[in-house]
Amino acid sequence: MSAAGSSPAASSSTKRLEGKVALVTGGATGIGEAIVRLFREHGAKVCIADIQDEAGQRLRDALGDQDVMFVHCDVTVEEDVSAAVDAAAERFGALDVMVNNAGITGNKVTDIRNVDFAEVRKVFDINVHGVFLGMKHAARVMIPQKRGSIVSLASVASAIGGMGPHGYTASKHAVVGLTKSVAGELGRHGVRVNCVSPYAVPTALSMPHLPQGARAGDALKDFLAFVGGEANLKGVDVMPKDVAEAVLYLASDEARYVSALNLMVDGGFTAVNHNLKAFED
Prior knowledge:
Elements: E1 21-25, H1 30-41, E2 45-50, H2 53-63, E3 68-72, H3 78-92, E4 97-100, H4 117-145, E5 148-153, H5 166-186, E6 191-198, H6 219-230, H7 240-251, E7 262-265
Parallel strand pairs: 1-2, 1-4, 2-3, 4-5, 5-6, 6-7
């Protein structure tokens, strides 16, 4: 689905990333696309890094200006990540914001005895090692600048179990640990490191995990109905743009003294005891 949204472009007086340069991994579709579009609305020059070449180039062309570029990047390959960071810094003169968005869930397997360990390795390669490489090479540019913001995408699965496959849940816990550890190091250089943990967002990554019994026909409608039924905060459907807004905050100077934070975008889901639902009536 498109993450463009229908909100008007930010006015020049409210552009929160004016003059900044950002790189977004997995930026061609889903939450990554929403981040790219919102960052451009707020004045950032953006490098889209993704393995989906056609989608990435299509988004670059759709945005239609010289302040957006696309680079092919497999986040499990260090040379690709390093080259993407260098390409953004060389094209635009700096790197102010690194968004480690690329990630996968892995197959839904409810019995650990049947889990393919090769798939667990793949999930960790993308979700953890890819984030680590993004942090490493962003730091290479940001430390000499004495400034920067690194934002990684985690998940509600970073805080509780039962929200995804075992490998996925473990990987998102690891992203939070990396965020805190790297924030502890890079703070002395003026570089902030945070992560964002959304509840279930309707993207091509998450929608296949909808339980079979909840699928009736319209995939998006079914997904929102199921997720809304499980959510804590009613009357709001979390969308890619909502996650992008949280990333925008952490990337901007409005969060200039915020570091090592795991920002939950979950409507309170991970903070409440859902067993209490039995007593609501």
